[in-house]
Structures are given as C-alpha cells and as structure tokens.
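Hey, quick one: can you model this chain's 3D structure?
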Amino acid sequence: MPDPSSPNAASFKRELTGVIPHLRAFARGLCGRADLADDLVQETLLKAWAAQERFEPGTSMRAWTFVILRNAYLTDMRRNRFRADYDETVAERILTAPPGQEGPIHLSDMHRALLTLPAERREALLLVGAGGFSYEEAAEICGCAVGTIKSRVGRARATLSGMIETGSLPRRSTSDAVAHVAIMQELDQVSQG
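Sure thing. Here's the predicted structure for all 193 residues.
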C-alpha cells in the first residue's frame, strides 16, 4: 500500500471523497434501503482504499468505484439469495384485490415500482437515467456490451410504463412526503460533482 502521506495518496483521497455522493445515490437505488446502502458504500470505500495501487490516475474514479460497489452488491445478493425478508405490505397486497378506480401516481408508489425491477435492469436505469452515465460508461461499469445496457434500460422503462398504464404500481404505506425527501436527497447527491 502506498505511503498515506505521499502526494499520490492525497490526490487519491480527494478523488475518492468526491465520488461518495454518487456512490450513495447508486447504492440506494440498488438496495432500496438507506442503511444497507450506507454499509455498501462503506465497504466500497474500504476496498477502493486497499486497492488504490490498482487505480490508474487519469481514469474515472467514479466508474472505477461504481464497479467495486456493483461487485460488492452482487456478492451480497448471492450470499443472501436464500434468505428472504417478510414484507407485510407485499403480503397484504397479494391477499387483497386492488381497487378498480384509477388514482393518481404517488411518488412513493413509483419509488417502490423501481425496486420491483430485476437488479440488472434497475441498475442500468439508475446508471443511465439518474447517474447520467453514457451507455458506454454504464456498460463498462456493468461489464457487459453496450447493446445489453440499452436493452436493459429499454425493458426497465417499458416495465415501468406498463405498470403506469395498467395501474399496477405497487402501493406502499410510506407517505409521498417521505418518498419526496428520499428522492430529492438522491438527486442532490447525484447532481453534486
């Protein structure tokens, strides 16, 4: 590991600190829970610091750390795939029929709908839509072809559009005010930098 007092280490630390808001926004989009996202960001920062000699100066710190975060998230998903959490809201929705009338789309419902997307599609949509990455950058972060990213984003958008058109957006007891604050915080974090 490089000497922490060296100019290169100081530069690395500045760049790494600068991407923290972007990492938080991406992690929250992947996890859907602020506490898990913060743990994931912390793990990413530790891994990035430990592997700083592998970072190539002049390349994108944001893209490099997003790859680390994504890999940590996928590792956690594989580890936890056989463990399921009980969600009372989901259980209630399954056991009751939705009302027949159309209602307004609530922000909390849209946020919940985003969380129902498969991880790969949600990730691609967050990177391209909220993260502002190009398709090429998103493909590099995800380790797949540009066409795959375009397909995932297109399918994610189509799924969300279908939910809106059919009125099948998942309902959640969270208020719009809480969802609004959460989304605005993520937007502020993404726009910083």
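One thing worth noting: The CA atoms of residues 76 and 82 lie 11 Å apart.
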